[in-house]
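Protocol step 6 of 9: fold each sequence in the batch and record its C-alpha cells directly after the sequence line. For illustration, a two-sequence batch is reproduced in full.

Sequence one:
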Amino acid sequence: MNSEKKYKHIFIDLDRTLWDFEKSATQTFEEIFEKYELQKFGVSSVELFTATYKKHNDILWAMYRDGEIIKEVLSVKRWFLTMQEFGIVDGELAALIAEDYITLSPLKVNLFPYTHEILSYLKQKYTLHLITNGFEEVQQVKIDASDLRKYFTEIITSEMAGCKKPDSRIFEFAMDKAGVVAEESMMIGDDLRVDILGAKGVDIDQIFVNYDSEPHSEEITFEVNNLKKIEEIL
C-alpha cells in the first residue's frame, strides 16, 4: 500500500497521545497538595490523594463522555468525592481546587517523546487536524503552552462537536469541518475504544499508539508503541 498517495488528512488525539496527561496531572496534584496543606486534613500523601482522585475521576469521566453528567458537575464532584474519602466534606474547598486544577494542569508542558518531531514530519506530507474530548478552554491552553497549534489546520473539540469520541458523530463532524472523506483520512490515538474503534466505526483507518504494548484482540489498521515509528507507516 502506498500510504503517501492514499492518505491526505491525519486526525490526531491530544491527551495521552501527544500530551503526557499523567505526568502533567501528577505535577499539578503535588502543587495543590502543598498549596492547600492537605496533610493537615488527614491526607497522608500526595500519592494516595492522586490514586483516590483517579478512581473517582475515571468513573465520572466515563459518565461525562456518555452524556450522563455535564462538565461543571464533573469538574467539582471528582474533587468533592476524593476529599470526602479523607473525611473532608467541603464543597467550597472542592470548587477552589477544581478551579486551580483547570488553571494549572494545562500549563504543565509534558509531551511524549518525538511529539514535535513526528508532527513536523507529518505536516510536510499531510494536512493535520486535532480531535479531542477534553474541556474546550483547557485544551486550547495546552495547545498554546506546548506550541502545538502551528501544526494543525483544524482543532476539533467534543464541546464544539456536541458529542464525544467514540461517538461516530464527532468523527463525521471533524471530517465535514476539514472537508475530507474517510478514505483519505487516518486517525492516530492512544485509546483503543475511544480513538481507534471510534474511527474504525466510520471507516477511517487508524494508528493505535499503544505505549505500554497492552495485548488486545481488535483488528486495527496499524499499531506502534512510540510516535517515532509512525514514520515507518506514513
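Sequence two, same batch, same settings:
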Amino acid sequence: MAPIVRLLLLVWFGLVLADVRPAAQDSADALAHRIEAAQPGATRELGSLTMAELLLRTKVPGVSVAVIKDSAIHFAKAYGLADVVAKRPVEIGTLFQAASISKPVTAMATARLAQEGRLSLDADVNTLLKSWKVPVFEHNRDHPVTPRALSSHTSGADDGFGFPGYDPAAPRPSLVQILNGETPSNVGPVLFVRPPFQSFKYSGGSVTLMQLALMDVTGRPFAELLHDTVLGPLQMTNSSFEQPLPAAWAARAAHAHNRDGMAQPVPWHVYPEQAAAGLWTTSTDLAKFAIEVQRALRGPRGAVLTQGSAREMTTPVGVGPYGVGFSVEKRGEGWYFSHGGSNWGFRCTLLAHLRKGYAVVVMTNGDNGSVLATELVERVAAAYRWDMK
C-alpha cells in the first residue's frame, strides 16, 4: 500500500473514531452508568457512593429519574423499592406524589384558560370566585388580589403552608373550610396581610384559593378540569389529581416512608388541596410537562401553551423569584425554571433549562428524598455537561 494511501486511511479512520466515540460516550446507557457510579474526584459527601449506596446512606427506599436532552426524554430509570414491606420494586410506571410540583401544573391550566380568554391573570380574583371571597380591606382595596399574584406567591397571603395531608380514613375538609381554617381542616386560615406584589411569601393557601377560582369559573371538578386542560393534551397518561387516588391506580403507587426509611402507618396521605399538593404522577410524565414549557418557549407554541403563556410561567413577576407557577434562577451561566415538592413521605424536584432543552425530574418516596435528589441533580448536570458551574 502506498504511503500516501496508508496515511489517508489512517486519517479517515481517526475521523470516524472521533465521530463515533463521543456519540457512544453520550449514549443514554453510558450517561446513566456515569450517574449511577461513584463520582471520580467528587468533593461532595455523597459523591463517592454508587446509586445503591446512595439509597442506603440516605435511607430513601426508592427513586425514579427522568433526564431530558434536546427537549426529549433521553433516559428514565427507577431504583429501589416502592414499598419496603412488600419489597415491591420501583418501576418507570410507579406513581409518586408530586407534592408542590402540583402548583406549576395548576398554573399551566390557569395560563391556558387565560390564553383562551376565560379569565385574566390580572383580574380581581373576587370576580372569579363564587363560594368564597378575599376580604377587602386597606391592603388590597386599591390593588386587588389576582391570579398572577396568587400563582407567584406575591398576593399578600401570609399562611406559609405546607399541607400535612389527611389519613385516608379521617374526615376531610372542603376548600372553604381549609381557607377559613375550620374543622376538620388541620391548618390555619388563609389571611391576606400585605398589598399584592409588595413582597414574596410562599403560600400553599394562595394556590388552594386558585383551585377554588378555577372550579368556580368552569363549574367543573378540579381533577377533571386539569385532565382536560393539561394532563390529557400532554399525554400524561399516568397522572391524576384525583384525591383520594382511585383504587385501580393504587397498586402502581409508591408508599410513603419516614426519615429512617421505614413504612409510614398508612401508605400515603390524602390532599383535598389538589392544586397545591394533590398530583400523582411519574418522573416521565413530569418530564413531558417540562418539555411542553421548553417547546412553547422556543415557539411558536406547544401542545397546550402559546409562547406568551410559557413566558408568563417562567418570567418573575417583579417581586420574588416566581413567575406564574415556576421559580426562575441563574445557576452558573444558565437560567433555569424549577419547582420542588415535599409531601408526607415523598420528596421530588424538577429542574429545567430555559433555552438549552435539558432538564431532570427526580421523584422519591422517603422523607430524606431531598438530599438524594440534590445529589442526583449534581450528577446529571455533570454527566450531561450542563452550564450550572
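Proceed to step 7 once all outputs are recorded. Observation for sequence two: Confidence is low (pLDDT under 50) at residues 1-24.
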